[in-house]
Amino acid sequence: MILTPCALTIAGTDPSGGAGIQADLKTFQELKSFGMSVITSVVAQNTTGVQSVHHIPLKMIEQQLESVFSDIPVHALKTGMIANVDMMKVIADKITGLNAPYVMDPVMVATSGDPLIAENARYFLRGNLLPLTTLVTPNIPEAEYLTGETIHTIDDMKQAAVQIVDRFNAGAALVKGGHMQGEATDFLYDGSTLHTFSAKRINTKNTHGTGCTYSAAITAYLSQGASLYEAVKSAKYFVTKAIEHSFSLGSGSGPTNHWATRKEGMKNELYHH
Ligand SMILES: Nc1ncnc2c1ncn2[C@@H]1O[C@H](COP(=O)(O)OP(=O)(O)OP(=O)(O)O)[C@@H](O)[C@H]1O
Ligand SMILES: Cc1ncc(COP(=O)(O)O)c(N)n1
């Protein structure tokens, strides 16, 4: 057992609190991991969309990473929005060889439809960051970009998960079904087994930050020593509750509720199998 599990997020910000670094830190805190953050871009955004973006200078991203890595153990890390190739190079260089699970949320476009990373960065991410991952967590459009194939059916989702691991060398792939119809079903391929995680679809427009919250929850559980399967299973439960109790805040797509399980008086414990 790790006494103080330390989880790091490397991502962009959301001043309205629903997505990005803010969602990640709230999730780490809620799941009792010590949360740390390296900011890649300051994003002026809210529930309606992205208003403007300021990229942090490369040197400063590098220094933030050094500040953390030179001083504090990182038991698991995640990346979210990494806006361009130069940032990806700095981050790849710093996390290569780190002995900790790495979860990549391959953030490309916000729920609002606003692009969050440069077009050419998608290819660099696939070729250079994916092979470093323990897990990558694409939604349907992101899985389509990664594989170059369109996804219409459950079988397409499963095939995408397998391809992302077998062809592009991700450690494991979790293809998320938030953008499909019917049950909210995600497929995890770990290189040998395909696992299914399913929950009832909640009828809400408040899904701002669901991807960030889910990948942060997986990272938190991994920082505590959970297996990949246990971490995804527990995180799926956490994100489902966070969507079920999401807020109608703002005039757009409202945020998830990181307090949801506490509200229901549940403990955020790992599922063991
Ligand atoms: N309406 C919903 N009801 C229940 N679960 C949902 C719903 N929408 C998404 N999910 C689940 O939330 C998790 C995040 O999936 P999703 O596909 O929405 O990711 P995403 O698109 O990266 O999120 P984001 O909205 O942050 O971009 C997945 O487990 C997905 O199945
Ligand atoms: C900084 C940042 N990172 C990620 C997302 C994606 O989250 P969503 O698609 O739910 O808006 C976002 N909006 N902002």
TrEMBL record:
tRNA processing found in the keyword field: no
Pathway: Cofactor biosynthesis; thiamine diphosphate biosynthesis; 4-amino-2-methyl-5-diphosphomethylpyrimidine from 5-amino-1-(5-phospho-D-ribosyl)imidazole: step 3/3; Cofactor biosynthesis; thiamine diphosphate biosynthesis; 4-amino-2-methyl-5-diphosphomethylpyrimidine from 5-amino-1-(5-phospho-D-ribosyl)imidazole: step 2/3
Superkingdom in the source lineage: Bacteria
Compositionally skewed regions (Basic and acidic residues) per UniProt: 261-273
Annotated family: Belongs to the ThiD family.
PANTHER family membership: HYDROXYMETHYLPYRIMIDINE_PHOSPHOMETHYLPYRIMIDINE KINASE THI20-RELATED, PHOSPHOMETHYLPYRIMIDINE KINASE
Protein name per its UniProtKB record: Hydroxymethylpyrimidine/phosphomethylpyrimidine kinase
